[in-house]
TrEMBL record:
The keyword Signal applies. This is SGNH hydrolase-type esterase domain-containing protein. PROSITE patterns: TAT. InterPro entries: SEST-like, SGNH_hydro, SGNH_hydro_sf, TAT_signal. Residues 1-29 form the signal peptide. The keyword 4Fe-4S does not apply. Keywords: Signal. SUPFAM superfamilies: SGNH hydrolase (SSF52266). Residues 36-254 form the SGNH hydrolase-type esterase domain. Gene3D superfamilies: SGNH hydrolase.
Length: 337
């Protein structure tokens, strides 16, 4: 063997020694893809802290999709957006699903039923609104129109993400029979009917989910004792900014939604520890950059926002006169509640 041949042999042995450990290392699998679809109850409206993605979707790292993704190491595409209806999910969100999607959560139906408008109506005094009429209209829609729309949507989700675990997420009861806010006038009977409407919506969501082969996460029991005006409140009452009103707070997502959704989605309950919260928060910039790619589509979604009663308008004063109500005295008493 000549000198050149010996040098090449030595070099080859050295390279083999360097490369062999690298070649023997296992290839790291890509993080499972998780797509969160839906409306404000999924995006995190009510938590008061949102990623800067150039939209009005109000996506929060305190919301359950972000917490679950952080805890499990999933690659989250956070498409849920405040105000989204079934057509919005279909047109602006389903494009994120692929055959490689492993997990999907979907929360939608409340805006289709006009729940923000119902709350706006029922928050007014009895003499200024028709709360029962608004609730009746919403319940009729939920029972007669919504189911077929859910069936179509869920079929499209399964078609686009054929191998994904899909969890349909319901809505909590908002009220506990007490209205502690000075300038809303939900009666105990109205609150009861509004909670019944949430239950009706959940029953239709659960039925459609079952028919599609999806799981249904019902947060109702987790939120009992934590409704608006409870001592340990997990849902905002009348708030500023107004868009925060009647949506779960950060503690509602951590203590209510996350333990309801995570066992069905991931196979085990997620504990929202300080580390999970920190890791979720650290994902804000990366998630914002991802969602900016969809900003044009997201801007087609119109937020559905509760409107606080205004009894200073000519219409309100007219209604008060017709009902024999002294509006100035009424407002003074309301301010002392």
């Amino acid at each position: 063997m000549n000198r050149t041949t010996r040098r090449l042999a030595v070099l080859g042995s050295a390279l083999a020694g360097l490369l062999t450990p690298l070649l023997l290392q296992p290839v790291q699998a890509a993080a499972p893809a998780y797509v969160a679809l839906g409306d404000s109850y999924a995006s995190g409206t009510g938590t008061r802290s949102y990623i800067s993605d150039g939209t009005s979707c109000q996506r929060s790292t305190s919301a359950y999709p972000s917490l679950i993704a952080a805890a499990r190491g999933y690659a989250l595409n956070f498409r849920a957006c405040s105000g989204a209806t079934i057509p919005d999910v279909t047109n602006a969100q389903l494009g994120a699903l692929t055959s490689a999607t492993s997990y999907v959560s979907i929360s939608v139906g409340g805006n289709d039923a006009g729940f923000a408008n119902v709350l706006t109506t029922c928050a007014q005094p009895w003499w200024a609104s028709n709360c029962d009429g608004a609730i009746n209209t919403a319940q009729s829609f939920i029972s007669n129109t919504l189911p077929s729309r859910l069936t179509t949507l869920y079929s499209q989700i399964r078609s686009r993400a054929p191998y994904a675990k899909v969890v349909v997420v319901g809505y909590p009861r908002i009220f506990n029979g007490e209205d502690c806010n000075a300038f809303t006038w939900f009666s105990p009977a109205e609150q009861s009917r509004l909670n019944q409407t949430a239950d009706l919506l959940n029953s239709r969501l659960a039925a459609a989910a079952s028919a599609a082969g999806f799981s249904f996460a019902n947060p109702t029991s987790r939120f009992i004792g934590h409704a608006v005006c409870a001592a340990d409140e997990w849902i905002n009452g009348l708030s500023s900014p107004i868009s925060e009103s009647y949506h779960p707070k950060a503690n509602g997502h951590a203590g209510g939604y996350t333990p309801s959704v995570s066992p069905l989605l991931t196979g085990a309950a997620v504990a929202v520890t300080a580390q999970v919260v920190a890791e979720s928060s650290a994902s804000a910039d990366e998630q914002a950059a991802l969602q900016r790619r969809y900003a044009a589509a997201d801007r087609t979604i119109e937020p559905e926002t509760f409107v606080a009663p205004d009894l200073t308008t000519p219409e309100a004063r007219r209604d008060a006169r017709r009902a024999g109500v002294d509006i100035e005295t009424f407002l003074e008493r309301s301010a002392r509640r």
